[in-house]
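Q: For a teaching session next week I want to show students how multiple molecules come together into a single three-dimensional assembly. I've collected the sequence lines for a complex. Could you give me the predicted structure tokens for the whole thing so I can convert them for display?
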Amino acid sequence: MQEFIQKIIADNKKYIEKGTLPAYIPELTKAKKEALGLSIVMLDGKEYHGGDHRYKFTIQSISKVITLLLALEEKGEEYVFSKVGMEPTGDPFNSMLKLETVRPSKPFNPMINAGAIAISSMIEGRSSMGKVEKLLAFFRQITDNPDLTINENVYLSEKRTGDRNRALAYFMKDVGVIDKDVEGSLDVYFKQCAIEVTTQDIARIGAFLANDGIDLKTGKTLVHKKHIKIAKTFMFTCGMYNASGEFAINVGIPAKSGVGGGILATVPGKMGIGIVGPSLDDKGNSIAGIQMIRDLSEKYKLSIL
Amino acid sequence: MQEFIQKIIADNKKYIEKGTLPAYIPELTKAKKEALGLSIVMLDGKEYHGGDHRYKFTIQSISKVITLLLALEEKGEEYVFSKVGMEPTGDPFNSMLKLETVRPSKPFNPMINAGAIAISSMIEGRSSMGKVEKLLAFFRQITDNPDLTINENVYLSEKRTGDRNRALAYFMKDVGVIDKDVEGSLDVYFKQCAIEVTTQDIARIGAFLANDGIDLKTGKTLVHKKHIKIAKTFMFTCGMYNASGEFAINVGIPAKSGVGGGILATVPGKMGIGIVGPSLDDKGNSIAGIQMIRDLSEKYKLSIL
Amino acid sequence: MQEFIQKIIADNKKYIEKGTLPAYIPELTKAKKEALGLSIVMLDGKEYHGGDHRYKFTIQSISKVITLLLALEEKGEEYVFSKVGMEPTGDPFNSMLKLETVRPSKPFNPMINAGAIAISSMIEGRSSMGKVEKLLAFFRQITDNPDLTINENVYLSEKRTGDRNRALAYFMKDVGVIDKDVEGSLDVYFKQCAIEVTTQDIARIGAFLANDGIDLKTGKTLVHKKHIKIAKTFMFTCGMYNASGEFAINVGIPAKSGVGGGILATVPGKMGIGIVGPSLDDKGNSIAGIQMIRDLSEKYKLSIL
Amino acid sequence: MQEFIQKIIADNKKYIEKGTLPAYIPELTKAKKEALGLSIVMLDGKEYHGGDHRYKFTIQSISKVITLLLALEEKGEEYVFSKVGMEPTGDPFNSMLKLETVRPSKPFNPMINAGAIAISSMIEGRSSMGKVEKLLAFFRQITDNPDLTINENVYLSEKRTGDRNRALAYFMKDVGVIDKDVEGSLDVYFKQCAIEVTTQDIARIGAFLANDGIDLKTGKTLVHKKHIKIAKTFMFTCGMYNASGEFAINVGIPAKSGVGGGILATVPGKMGIGIVGPSLDDKGNSIAGIQMIRDLSEKYKLSIL
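A: Of course. Below is the structure for the complete assembly, covering every listed component.
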């Protein structure tokens, strides 16, 4: 496998040139565009790495999966889905359309920004700092990496330019989806997006999902299996922005991408995959990353369908 | 005319029952639902009043007309219309749809909330308090009423519950329509909406517009004639929320309503009309007020078409 | 006036280059792009002409005004507006959006294609040929031109490529706005759009509207005054596609344009104006024509506001 | 298993009362509302049946899966997806919104009506009758049921009231998605929807998909494995109208429902499931059918995630 990882990285270097860095978060344009890294974590704990697997990038939308798990654990399925829907939406990740046109007004799923902000607003805690601490602890536990921290520059950059997310949040406050302090909820959201990771961290999250929420090391169940199933299903139906359908057909495994260039993928019962490649296509997905995971899926027949 | 005013008020009392007070601004539900008042100001300065013409109500969306005039005077036509369009929109006054779906993203006109907030953000001044002071001075000059003030309770109520307007404002910040402090701009907007008036004040604004921007008392031109024309045209094409087309056909004079129950109307070269009736129809227009102005228009053949 | 007409035509020749002919109706691309004509008919019957006033073009959307009048006369206001609304819409003339998103589903006004097709479907008659004959007779009466006929090539071209209009019509059949034979209704619509006119014909229609529905020659009332008022109001609020608001501000008179390059305008109590200039702007309005009518309006202070 | 099938049917009888028959296709309201049937076909050919498994119903939208397979076989992936997308859409199955608002204009996937009609228009053949014959032969082969035919009454009922589908088709003709005769394409579509089946037929289709396109009896590959994978993925992401996301989470197997009350489901490598229950929920899915398949999935742990 180690060998194939090297080959995949070499084969897909050429795609880097075709993508771009996301200009709407100024700090992200400082990323190393040509970075390309891949980590795989098997359920027996064995880890494989290749390329820039030590390159640090912010987790961005991949965090939506983990925050969803925490909200499900804290508040339960019924509450979570009273506020956020379960359906894919063909609209861009930052769209407000359906909030206005579909009744009752409720974000369609937790993978689009509106839904993710609503989920972040559910995390319990006295202060937004307390909520972020708890969230960070949960991330550290799942990745078995006590050093995970927030990239302050990226956080501040997103907070400064996050007016579209602010618009989504205030709209949801108006219609009762968010019933708490909007700026505090946004703060949690901006911070969770700015958590800095490597492909190893991401692959470990993938393995944790593949292992149905059971810690690989300790064997302890950290998250209910049903909640893990929910997360994997959302990853499969709407994890890759509005290229999710195409990805499901061509790759066929639950995955979630972020505009930091990361892709989290999970092969149920088999492995977790972490990828980084900051150069994005026009949907917001790592352009080389998608090709790499496609190659992996074909080689090892990972598709679940 | 005095007599006909009494008759109109008596005739239309029956409509009050059919309408409601706007629940989304809690403070407005304290209004006197059965109030009904009418004032007419002729261009020679003669004034006629009937019913609850001393009843105080907040000006709400009627303020959009005057703020537009001030912005046009301060920034000029070219600047104003680089940020806000000139077209009616068939959408509700608080809609965000077209901001997302039409390129370039720009509120369609200054009579919908998005456009009005953009206009308020243009008013020049060091602080939002300074801007409000200037705006208030302008209102006082046009109404010849130095006692006009802001109803603090209504202002605070709108500020507290104004999350939909906040969503509109942050969206516009994101797309560059608003380039200043959003909360400050909203503060100006919430305050202008909470200016407390009587039908006399409103009728005087109507007479000022009917007189092409020339002060009735002093004969001094306060606003460019072209700017007055622009305001009257917007009132005609989109002054009555999304019942503007119906109103244009059935009444046929430029008018602007507010959810405080007021209606401002202007008959070019003839008179200004101020109406109050806080009980609203489902579009947000005074239900008895619309009937009263329709009766007036038919009796005195005021329609411009 | 004759002199000023010449000057206007000369002054605005330059705009022709900036526009285009409408490619979606192949036959219309055969029009003489550089034609520019203007006719004015005063209410005393005096007529002024300039430029290519003998140039023949198809009436296209301008026909919507006359068909609306006939439908109002035949079916009455109540019936007509039970099927078609009175509100401007900020959407393109061929949009289906609001039919799907706004309840009850009903075209917003008779000037957009959906509304105009619904109006055409109301014209009474045993066959679509009979309806078209009646419509043509009505056009001939108003223009005092017994020679008006349909341009068969344009009619067939529109029929052949009119799938978007077909989509609108079938959607309206589905929701009950159209309760008759769809293809027959479309046939009436395509034929009314293909009536061939000169600026003289158009100016006479404008004078007829300006004269409140009274035949200039015979003094006989052909159309109820209220129906004329309705037509003029729609022209003012939504006659120039989605540049109607801008036109209302800059020109200020009721007008209706067609993609054949014609513009019909009416100055209440004063005159009718007919313009042709087949080169269109991106909204579908004659690019030089709009400038010509703007010059006319400024010179003779024709704006109604 | 036979026993559990009986139990499931008994347990879910109660849901029948809560649903309704689809009024927009008059002929479908004649269905036996209380019918409830279930068939399961294992990959070794073993079949289990329960309840009204001999009840005949029209296949409706379930046919979209099979027509897609035929189109993929005839025209190839590249051509098919040049005309129809791969993405779920949060809109109702008969929506036109995205055709107008998203560029390039192309139905989002083959499971919504617009996409399915586009797919039907691709089937090759000299006449629409020839295409339908070919399609029917394909259905008969997959179900191993040479007696499958079209319910003429349902076909004619849908043809007569199918104006919304007609609107979709003409819109797609206008934008170039459909390049052939619209009425002919609709005829194929209406007929494929009116094919009459039992749960046994449906379960056999499910087994064929579960067996990767290999005929259970003959062992011959009838459809490319990649095409089967595409169909299964669409079933998983958008097979249950706009309750697909919820179904994916709660049931977790690829499925497709039709307004005739049928549900097709496939458990990769294991079995095919056919269900009928004509009483529908507000999304258009069999209300008892969904519960039955949920029970099955839980009992036998069929979820793929």
